[in-house]
Design brief:
This protein is an alpha/beta fold and 188 residues long. It is built from 6 helices and 6 strands, in the order αββαβαβαβαβα. The chain is globular. The termini are far apart.
Length: 188
């Protein structure tokens, strides 16, 4: 099963990049390779800005002038003119709250919806960058792009033997637009 970070998945669709499950969930028939989180090793390094913009735009959390929660190691703050030019080769991804899942993963960039203050400090002390665009934002892409079509297909297959014309009725599987992240960004 793929993560809801479709922009990151698109970024890494090349056969030259490798993807691996961080924590496998074995024994789920029909879902071999299922598990929590993904670690992607890019064939060639890319700037953190390129990666972050793709993810944020896909998640719908940024326009080109908005802000993204990003933590970078102190050495980059002191020695790099533009932190957005940091080169990234490996990315670990977990939708929702992935701090505990990602804490022992060796990757240049950790991407999760939320991570505790101390988990973030530990990551940047190890030299990792952290992007945390809020819990709900990281799950919405999965719901829209992966789960909704799967539910539509499952309902169609389940109902097909029971539905008979002329009483054949359709159905809709919707992803709520009213539900959203409880946090909002306010500018003073």
């Amino acid at each position: 099963m793929v993560s809801g970070f479709s922009a990151l998945i698109d970024l890494t669709k090349s056969d030259r990049h490798t993807r691996e499950v961080i924590t496998a969930v074995p024994g789920v028939e029909g879902f071999e390779g299922a598990g929590m989180g993904r670690k992607i090793t890019l064939h060639e390094s890319q700037t953190i800005k390129t990666i972050l913009m793709r993810i944020a735009n896909e998640l719908g959390v940024l326009s080109p002038y908005d802000e993204v929660p990003l933590a970078v190691p102190y050495r980059f703050r002191q020695n790099v003119d533009d932190p957005f030019e940091i080169e990234i080769k490996t990315i670990a991804v977990c939708a929702g709250s992935g701090g505990s899942l990602l804490k022992n993963v060796d990757a240049d960039l950790l991407v999760t919806g939320e991570m505790s203050h101390h988990e973030t400090l530990a990551a940047i002390e190890k030299g990792q960058c952290v992007m945390a665009p809020f819990h709900t934002n990281t799950e919405r892409g999965y719901l829209r792009q992966v789960l909704r079509p799967k539910l539509e297909q499952a309902v169609e297959e389940e109902w097909k033997p029971e539905r008979k014309p002329p009483a054949d009725v359709g159905f809709d599987v919707s992803v709520s637009i009213a539900d959203g992240d409880p946090y909002e960004i306010f500018t003073f």
